[in-house]
Amino acid sequence: MILVVNKYLLGKGFKGVSIWPFVILKHQWLKNDRLFINHERIHLRQQLELLLIFFYLWYFTEFVIGLCKFGSAYKAYLNISFEREAYKMETDGDYLSRRKFWAFLNYL
């Protein structure tokens, strides 16, 4: 994981984004936010499992389906299986050591 701090690379409303192997952060202090970093580490694992390109295709597909279903970009985002897993498990610092392969499928 390579942490990069650059507020200009992120859109309004984003604190950070994972694009393997980078985690781009809007603010320097986010480097010390254990929950946020763990959340992004979970995304990095998901990305590797799906060989990067399939992660982004799946993510985008779930987002579009959620946008149609909920009529809200924020609700669509929160209902993406990758986000549901990351938000639920971000408080567990040991989660990645015992996480099963393709665990995000439990959050569909």
From TrEMBL:
Keywords: Membrane, Transmembrane, Transmembrane helix
Transmembrane regions listed in the UniProt entry: 50-68
Protein name, UniProt field: Uncharacterized protein
